[in-house]
Model the fold of this input.
Amino acid sequence: MASPSYQYVVVGGGLAATSAVEGIREVDQKGSILLVSSEQHLPYDRPPLSKKLWFGKKKVDDIYLHGKEFYEQKDITVELNVTINILDIRNKSVTDLQGTTYNFVKLLLATGGKPRRLSMQGGMLEGICYFRTLDDYTTIRREAINGKSAVIIGGGFIGSELAAALSHNNVDVTMIFPAPYLAHRIFPERLGLAIQDLYRTRGIKILAGQMPSGFSTYNGRFATYTLGNNKIESDMIIAGIGITPSLELARHAGLLTANGIIVNEYLQTSSPDIYSAGDNTFFHYPALGKQMRIEHWDNALNQGKAAGRNMAGANEPYSYMPYFFSDLFEFGYEAVGDIDASLETFTDWQKENETGTIYYLKDGKVRGVMMCNIWKKIELARDLIRRADRVTPKKLLGVIR
Done:
């Protein structure tokens, strides 16, 4: 039996993959499309998994990017619960774990990333949740009832958001992370410590500057061991220590990779008929003049769309500047550019540690902007970064309010 053949094959089941098939259909309404996902669900939005679903602002049915009818109407074949493990560049085919081969003319790798694993003793115990998927949310949500307890490993985006979400649902939360304060890679120290104090006022226990030495289970509960062999008992352990890009397919096939799959300005890999988009992609960021890999929703949305359009012949350089956002109790922010606390930072506060704009500077130029409880100013922030003017903190006062 001949292997099925498609004009476009998209490997991945997230936002970048779905945006790509939308992009293809904007340019090519007839070419055959196959979307292959290793998940059992139709593609869905990830941000609500640690945000709005916990606060009653969305229901699970609301997070699906499209219903089944969308894929039927657009004549897109969707294969769920299928993992692609072989990419053959020469023969322009991919093969799944069951041995089924699919031929392509154009291919997109939107394989995203996998959660990093805890390397200490007990880190692979059954029941430790490496939070990433809708199934992870469903499991934790079922267990997160009033009076339960959770240990969260990690103080970055996912750990901070989940701590707020679980605390809001009356779960007793302890956070453990090696950094000196929450989200230390993006927050200046004063703000990070202020947010950490906010968490503590909500009853969240924080063990900063630490990592567990190991884990064990007993009678259905977990034990987390910390410095001095202290033991914290809990009903749940959730790890949010970041992801690593899924590069196995690309590397084994011989595509160029670094901190992600390397692409050109059209999102083509080192094999021109193969494209990449989303969390796994190492691309040129023109406004910053450097290669980056970005793990945020807005990049997956726009980069996936651009890749799909280019697969169908649009030939448009990707120069979009993605933003990201988070909500930590009543503190929320939107940010764009290089948000790196190791850069020089200047904050124009309207209300100390609550409302204001943080500028991230390098060589006197604005490289990133975070707007704290200030909304709908992303375009103004993008313009500051694009212009790359040399500025002083005095010149930035009142620019974004």
Summary: The two ends are 64 Å apart (CA to CA). The chain has three domains: 5-114+243-311, 129-239, 333-396. The first helix runs from residue 15 to 27.
